[in-house]
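Can't paste images in this forum, so I'm doing it all in text. The chain is below; anyone willing to post the predicted structure tokens underneath?
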Amino acid sequence: MKIVLQGRGSDSRSMRMVVAGLCMSWLLAPMAAPGQTEKPPAGTASTVADVLAAARAEDWRTPDAENTLYVELPGGRVVIELAPLFAPQHVANVKALAREYYFDGLAVLRVQDNYVVQWGDPEVDNPQKARRITNARHSLPAEFDRSIDEKIHFTPLPDGDVYAGEVGFSAGLPVARDRHSNRMWLVHCYGMAGAGRGDSRDSGSGAEMYVVIGHAPRHLDRNVTLFGKVLQGMELLSSLPRGKGPMGFIEPGQTRVPIRSIRVAADVPLAGRSDLQVLRTDTETFRKLIEARRNRSEEWFLLQAGRVELANVPVPVRKKETK
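Text version of the structure:
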């Protein structure tokens, strides 16, 4: 900023002293981060816990058993909700693979710190030893994105995004949209599940899966097909022993963690299913939750960020309440 001083003698000296004082006050004033505000008085803003405590029964939904997978590891069960609205062919193929018991006895192939867990057939490159696929397809057209459909409810975040024109949630999933190209796509946030592929765009099938276990690798968006999200069991995946090879691949001599089985929930007897509910993302309750994440009013927080990024809005999951 330029300040032009005019005048002579004592008037000029006085003006310089005033300006110097103003500049010093600007320099000494505390600088707040953009969007950051002082925390409001206790009890005047809702916390995430407050929002969830006030949620109504109709704010929660039960995942469709036909579009839910149970991944059984030695440490327990990982529950993945599938996303047929965004990757219908991959969802259908993964279910076909599960129903021919393709995954049973395969293994975790890769555990890269702050990145992904990946599993599949360790012998996939050996034609004599590779697991046969009998009913499912060996490869599929990529489903990196889809056309925007206004019938798919979209709850936007108000703070923008580095990677997309707008981001928000649809059907419990993190989604990005671009109005200019009329495309929408799933986003690589923590817990998202996708289909591994080779260099060819259409080389994935779901026979090799990965789950994000670290900071959101958004550079992968629209480069790999995402087809679901982990609802339960992330602690089992994120705590697996890291692979010692390049990119976290399990090296010879390391013990591979086995995949005991993968089943479609609808094929599991009712007594053996995981009774979970997911907070709906098309409700006023979820919009309040977004605001509670943007402006943290819990006792520990001293300042409020006043904004939130997509990967920092986890969608709550709970065990189904029984009366």
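The CA atoms of residues 110 and 249 lie 4 Å apart. Residues 1-10, 17-32 have pLDDT under 50 and may be disordered.
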